[in-house]
Specification:
The complex is a heterodimer of chains A (144) and B (133). Helices cover 52% and strands 13% of the residues of chain A. Chain A has 144 residues and is an alpha/beta fold. A four-stranded parallel beta sheet of chain A has the order 2-1-3-4, sandwiched between helices. The N and C termini of chain A lie close together (8 Å). With 133 residues, chain B is an alpha+beta fold. Chain B has one domain. Chain B has four helices and four strands. A four-stranded antiparallel beta sheet of chain B has the order 2-3-1-4, covered by helices on one side. The termini of chain B are far apart. The chains are: A alpha/beta (144), B alpha+beta (133). Chains A and B meet through helix 1, helix 2 and helix 6 of A and helix 3 of B.
Chain lengths: 144, 133
């Protein structure tokens, strides 16, 4: 099954989803297609006008462009998802309003989609890691 | 992108040499956290499966957007961009994930202890009175 992850670029979640036999929908895979296209020359031009129009499907025009730009990439991934894992309290997802608001929007979109979803917390010690990994394993094995 | 957990005794050099010995038609680049490999999807998967066997619960992987040696990303070309914070933090915590994977392998069912109940107001008042006496 295609499993969407929040945060979509997480190494830990990507590995666990793949390890337990599913296909992770990763941001990196999507971006790879963008950055290796021959017409894209530098990182600020990663998002093309077509992408911005795609973003409008997921967020209104009054939503900050940073959110719409991100949703242009992440939105189609949510559409494609058959299941999702949401990790809360990631210590590294601080950042600008665009990043944070997009994360909130993504969580909302996933919950609204009604697909099987597991919500876990980022572990801070071994015990919490055990809980997280065993929950993810049980969830992913249950999807088969 | 192959990442070795800090709890592993393997080194990036060992991983890179091991991949070379597999004789597969892929590009390999040794990095500070493990190695990057690039090539046809099926061959990369085969290489990854072999590498994982070296230390199953301590070798992690994910896809990387930029190709190996991309001038926009590669430090050799001063192309380094912010974003290492996340991989650095997750790499540091891979030792915990390793513990979790070992527990999952043993079939443990893990639950966090229940959260402590909030202090009743009555008891709080008693404490306040004891302190102010």
């Amino acid at each position: 099954m295609k499993v969407f992850m929040i945060p979509p670029n997480s190494l830990i979640l990507y590995d666990l989803v793949e390890r337990f036999g599913h296909q992770p929908l990763s941001l990196m895979g999507e971006l790879r297609e963008h950055v290796v296209k021959p017409e894209v020359e530098s990182p600020p031009l990663n998002i093309s006008q077509e992408d911005i129009m795609k973003g409008l499907k997921y967020a209104g025009i009054e939503v900050p462009s940073g959110v719409r730009g991100r949703l242009a990439i992440w939105g189609p991934m949510v559409d494609e998802a058959e299941a999702a894992i949401i990790m809360h309290d990631m210590p590294y997802t601080f950042g600008c309003v665009g990043c944070h608001r997009t994360n909130l929007m993504l969580t909302y979109m996933v919950r609204r989609k009604g697909i099987p979803t597991l919500e876990v917390h980022y572990p801070h010690d071994d015990e919490e890691a055990k809980v997280m990994v065993t929950k993810i394993k049980a969830f992913l094995e249950g999807l088969k | 992108m192959i990442v070795i957990a800090p709890s592993s005794e393997l080194t990036p050099d060992q991983i890179a040499r091991f991949i070379h010995t597999l004789g597969l038609n892929i590009n390999v680049k040794e990095t500070c956290y493990g190695a990057n490999i690039e090539g046809p999807k099926s061959v990369v998967r085969k290489a990854l499966a072999e590498v994982r066997k070296l230390d199953p619960n301590r070798i992690f992987s994910k896809v990387r957007a930029f190709p190996i040696g991309d001038e926009r990303r590669c430090r050799a070309h001063h192309g380094s961009r912010p974003g290492f914070n996340q991989v650095e933090k997750e790499w540091r915590d891979l030792a915990m994930i390793d513990v979790g994977l070992c527990a999952a392998d043993r079939g443990e069912t893990c639950e966090l202890p229940p959260r402590p109940k909030p202090l009743p107001v009555k008891r709080l008042k008693e404490i306040a009175e004891e302190v102010t006496k």
